[in-house]
Amino acid sequence: MSRLTVPSRLAARVLTVALATSLGAVFASAQAAPLQKVGKGEGRLDIVAWPGYIERGETDKAFDWVTDFEKKTGCKVNVKTAGTSDEMVALMNEGGFDLVTASGDASLRLIAGKKVQEINTKLVPSFSKVDARLQKAPWHFVDGKHYGTPYQWGYNVLAYNTTVFKEPPKSWKVVFEEATLPDGKSNKGRVQAFDGPIYIADAALYLKAAKPELGIKDPYQLNDAQYKAALELLRAQRKLVSRYWHDAMVQIDDFKNEGVVASSSWGFQVNLLKGENKPIGSVVPVEGATGWADTTMLHANAKNPNCAYMWMEHSLSDKLQGDLAAWFSSVPSVPSACKGNKLLGAEGCKTNGADEFDRIAFWKTPVAKCELHKDGCVPYYRWVSDYIAILGGR
């Protein structure tokens, strides 16, 4: 992706997703009844997942939670990676997949669009081990029904170059407003922002503290005035941003070779850079952070439901949960996985942010009918079109 250009491919895909979301009730297929018994595996399992979420040891032999599953169940795992939540929704709308590891800004759209089905938690025995805060989380538990099994969670940290910032930056201000950094140079052209409409919530979260007179309580429930203020902040930020990132590996290279010194990021990038002894640190600023809690969801028309249920149970094992947390720098949805995992280590969960849960504003899809504003909130389709306009310099 070129610097500061309108990502036309992304724009087209996101607008398609927004249209599909708004028309979901019209085009949705019939919901399948929850499975009542896990039968013999179909021999195949197709998953849409974030990069790094479904590993079979090809990158690092120490990280493999697919091979043994295939041997045990006979279900051959096929993975299609997606770089954004919008891409995941688009792929699930197209069909042909059994499972998806959806973040909160995708999961509610998939439920509303009837692209995923209710699951029978009785067929997933390890569901009882899931963190109580996640078992009925609003991004997958709707109208008394479970639409998936929690997978992993984490937050969007402020990553920074430790040679520029001798002390960790305290506020997201360093990426949102033009400023002179501790090395005496401007932040213009040296910071990045996330390439996705949900990033509007990051701006709103910053404004919640920076401009309390706006009255922002929830960065995903914004009235017109609050939303306008967030857009104004992002339009100003565009003059500072060197790249809108969504590819973790590209961002890693930008920190190493392109002069980026501060950006929203994931622990995944930070830990890989630390592993290479690069001058990188991360912090949750005083305003808090947005974050993601991902759910393994079953497609409404899954062709391989037996293999899918087998995988959902497998995905909640302590071994997989701990290994994945070590690999992705995330936090297990099963707290018991934090203990006794050699790859994660004794302090791995704490290092990855296990104690920050209450400071995280987890991703969720903005909707017009909201709790906080009687006149309604700005819905996601407007977030999509307006963020694309910002990327295009409008």
Explain what you see:
The chain is an alpha/beta fold and 394 residues long. Helix content is 34%, strand content 16%. The strands form three sheets. Strands 1, 2, 3, 6, 12, 13 and 14 form a seven-stranded mixed beta sheet that branches. Strands 9-8-10-7-11 form a five-stranded mixed beta sheet, with helices on one face. Helix 4 packs parallel to helix 5 and helix 10 crosses helix 11.
Percent in helix: 25-40%
What overall form do the CA principal axes indicate?
Answer: globular
- What's the total count of β strands? 14
Structural class: alpha/beta
Tell me what portion of residues adopts beta-strand conformation. Answer: 15-25%
Mean pLDDT: 91
Question: Spans of 5+ residues with little confidence (pLDDT < 50)?
Answer: 1-30
Encode the helix/strand succession as letters.
Answer: HHEHEHEHHEEEEHEHHEHEHEEHHEHEH
Distance between the termini: 19 Å
Helical segment tally? 15
Please give the radius of gyration in angstroms. 21 Å
Largest sheet: 7 strands, mixed
